[in-house]
Amino acid sequence: MNILIADSGSTKTAWILLSEGAEPKEYVTSGINPNFNTVDEMADIIRDGLMDVINGASIGFVYFYGTGCGPESRKKKVKAALQLCFFDALIEVNTDLLAAARACLGNEAGVACILGTGSNTCLYDGEKIIKGVPSMGFALADEGSGGYFGKKILNSYFYELMPEELRNWLDENFDMRLESVLDAVYIKPRPNKYVAGFTRLIGEFHEHEFVRAMVRDGFIEFVEKQVGYLGDLTGQKVGFVGTIASIHRDILEEVLQQKGMILGDIVRGPIDELADYHLKLIYK
Questions:
Q1: Helices (DSSP H) in 116-208: which residue ranges?
Q2: Which of 70, 88, 108, 283 has the most crowded Cβ, counting Cβ within 10 A?
Q3: E-strand spans in the chain?
């Protein structure tokens, strides 16, 4: 029996194929988001990026976790796309937030957070999400995310508020003409993915005080607004999925401690932990 698990964001989808008696195999395709993609577009992403490399393996189960998969109508869109590719498989579609909870907390209760292209937070009882934060997306929320910090970086660049060495790096690595940026943000599709791409600066200058101050302010806003929405979480363990959380673990831990919370596991990408989670369910 072959099991296929996916963790999908707006930027990319990580896949892992589990086959009895064989080593897990991991693949990456473009991101799949039912808020932006049609059923046929999602099916094409899967066919073009995945079907050839899995070499015709017969898939018995597909567990898909993805951004934009909260509403039932969006789950049905993703499931319809998967059924076009995996005719005989049993398919389950869940949110990326449940993926974060299962990856960071397993069967323990606590708080699970995503700091990816977007951001989100939930309270998890060890089996299911019992309270979530309203997901308002790139334009209205997403505190602490790649999209959030990308906007901060662009704002600081064009208002000339960032140090010269950071401005020079952006000039060398991106098309920083204002016309090009405005076109990508307001006219072209997927502005959230485009803007989040500027967080490469955070990885490149992760020890720079300007970057650390920006990240600290963003984490404080994230904890106060999104984590704080869930109520009094004093003493609670808070787990995270996302590269920015991993790079600046020390700042995140400091911010949580100031609010009386405990930093739990940080997972850059949850696909391996999701594989372990489902294998334990199958063989328990």
A1: 137-140, 146-158, 164-173, 178-186, 191-196, 200-204
A2: 70
A3: 2-8, 12-19, 25-30, 59-66, 90-95, 110-115, 119-124, 129-132, 237-241, 262-267
Our measurement of the distance from residue 26's CA atom to the centroid of its chain's CA atoms, rounded to an integer in Å, reads 17
Global pTM reads 0.88
* Short-list 105, 128, 144, CA closest to 252: 144
* One pLDDT digit (tens) per residue for the chain, 284 residues: 799 999 998 788 999 999 888 889 999 999 999 988 999 999 999 999 998 888 767 899 999 999 889 899 999 999 999 999 999 899 999 999 999 999 999 999 999 999 988 899 999 999 999 999 988 888 999 999 999 999 999 999 999 999 999 999 999 999 999 999 999 999 998 899 899 999 999 999 999 999 999 999 999 999 999 999 999 999 999 999 999 999 999 999 999 999 999 999 999 989 999 999 988 876 65
Contact criterion met (CB below 8 Å) for 147 and 139: no
Q: What is the set of domains in the chain, with CATH numbers?
A: 2-96+271-283 (3.30.420.40)
Q: What is the CA radius of gyration of the chain?
A: 19
Q: What gap in Å lies between CA 35 and CA 56, rounded to an integer?
A: 29
